Amino acid sequence: MLTSHVRPLDFLLPEELEAGEPPEARGLARDEVRLLVSSYTDNRIEHAQFRQIPQFLAPGDVVVINTSGTMNAALEAIGADGTRYELHLSTHLPADLWVVEVRIPDEHGTKPYYGMREGEVLRLAENGTAALLLPYLPEQRVQDRSQKRLWIATLHLPMSWQEYLKSYGFPIRYRYVRNAWPIEYYQTVYATEVGSAEMPSAGRAFTPELITRLVALGVQVLPLLLHTGVASLEAHEPPYEEYYRVPEETAQGVNAARQAGRRVIAVGTTVVRALETVTTPDGVTHPGEGWTQTIITPERGVRAVHGLLTGLHEPQASHLLMLEAFAPREHLKLVYAEALQKKYLWHEFGDLHLLLP
C-alpha cells in the first residue's frame, strides 16, 4: 500500500464555515451552492455558482461520476452492560462480513469509542445483533493497539441488510450537522446502486437539468461505481480498501479523450481512486472490478485524470494529498486562502471546488 511522507495542508477552519445543513434548508436549490474554479497551470481563480459549471467545460470534455448511492449506515446499538452506542456500517465485505465503527454519544453528537473487545456483541433493533470479530487491519493502521476504531463484524438481522437499513438505519452525520436529515438529502440524483457509508458528495449539486445541459454542450458524462467507507474526520487516516467497478464504456471513453488531447474530469476523490486503480503507468485505463487499496499521493501522481470537482477538505485531511497529485501546494494554499476569505462553506452540504489545468 502506497503512503505519503508529505504532511497534508494545514490551516484554521472557523466553525461558522462548516455547513451544518443542506443548501435546501438555506433556501437554495442543489445547484445554487458556490463554485470556486481554479487553474493549477496559471493560478487563475474564479468564483461562480455551481449551475454555471457548463461555462468552464468544453465540448469533448469527459466528466466521470460515481453512481454509488448512500446507505442509512448508522444504527442505534446497545452493549452487554446497557451502554448505548451508535454503530456505523462502513464496508460490506465478501462472506457477508462488515467493517464497522462503534461510536458513543457526546455533547457534539458522537465520537469514536475505543473500548470494544473481540467477541463483544451489540444488540440492535428487532433482535438484530452485531458481533465484533477482530480489529480491521490492526497491524497496518493501529499504532497504539488500544485505539481499535474499526472492526470486522458479522450482522444477524431479521431481514436483508438493505431492508433493515431502510427501516431502522439513518444517515451518518458528524458534529457539524446538528439536525437529522432524511436519506434523500444524502443522495446524488444519478445514484443507481446503494452501498456507500457516506455520500460521494462532490456530485450532490448536480441536477438532471444541469446534466442535460452538459450533454447538450458536448460534454460526455460517464459512470463508474465506488462504494465509500466511513470517513475519519478525527484521525485523518488515509482511505481503507473499497469496492469499485469501472465499466468498459467508461474506460474506453477516458482513453479516447486522453488520446484526443481532451480533458478528463473526475467528480469526487472516489472517482479518482477508482480510475487510478485501473490505469497503468503508461496512462491506459482498463475496465475492472474489485477492491482497491490505491492511495493517491503527490509522489505517485495521477495518470488518468486532468481535473477534479471536489468539496473543500478539512485541515490535514488525507484528501488534500490527492489534490497535491494534481496541483502544487502553493496553488492549493492560494485556493484555500481565497475560500476562507470569501467564506465558502465546507463539508458535504457545502460549496465546491473545480480544479482544472
Number of E-state strands:
18
CATH architecture designation of the largest domain = 3-Layer(aba) Sandwich
Tell me roughly what share of residues is in helical segments: 10-25%
C-alpha Rg (nearest Å): 20 Å
Provide a count of the helices: 7
Give the rounded overall mean pLDDT. Answer: 93
What is the overall silhouette?
globular
Main structural class: alpha/beta
User: How would a crystallographer describe the biggest sheet?
Assistant: 9 strands, mixed
Percentage beta strand: 25-35%
- Element-level helix/strand string: EEEEEEEEEEHEHEHEEHEHEEHHE
Protein name: S-adenosylmethionine:tRNA ribosyltransferase-isomerase
Keywords: Cytoplasm, Isomerase, Queuosine biosynthesis, S-adenosyl-L-methionine, Transferase
Pfam family, one: Queuosine_synth
GO molecular function: S-adenosylmethionine:tRNA ribosyltransferase-isomerase activity
